[in-house]
Specification:
two-stranded parallel ribbon, globular, 15% strand, 117 residues, alpha/beta
Length: 117
């Protein structure tokens, strides 16, 4: 899994996704979509795509599945996303083994369990 901010995605990170698709790699990208280029001071993202447009772009690039996580899935009712996209509550992701929260629930005080850093 690779974390990727939307600022980085829009200026160079999209190439990494294209390369992963071209290589037929099994890869999960977690795209933080907060509309800021954080690594250079929080500027606005140039050339930013709205989330529905982004789902269509990803589909055109050959991405097989997009999962949008949000604290309010109902806000996406009526929004036209690409068919490869689904919307889930962000807490649902932490309940899956493949989710970003796979480390949650581990007791850091137990030395037999690994600590995610």
């Amino acid at each position: 899994m690779q974390n990727l901010g939307d600022g980085t995605f829009h200026h160079s990170g999209s190439l990494a996704i294209r390369a992963a698709v071209a290589a037929d790699a099994t890869m999960t990208y977690k795209l933080l979509y907060n509309e800021a280029v954080a690594m250079t001071g929080g500027q606005q993202v140039e050339g930013r795509l709205a989330i529905p447009d982004l789902t269509r772009w990803l589909a055109l690039e050959g991405v097989r599945r997009v999962v949008i996580t949000t604290p309010d899935p109902g806000s996406y009712r009526g929004v036209r996303l690409d068919p490869i996209a689904s919307v889930r509550h962000r807490d649902d992701l932490s309940k899956t083994r493949a989710g970003t929260g796979g480390h949650r629930g581990r007791h850091r005080s137990d030395p037999r369990r690994p600590v995610c850093r």
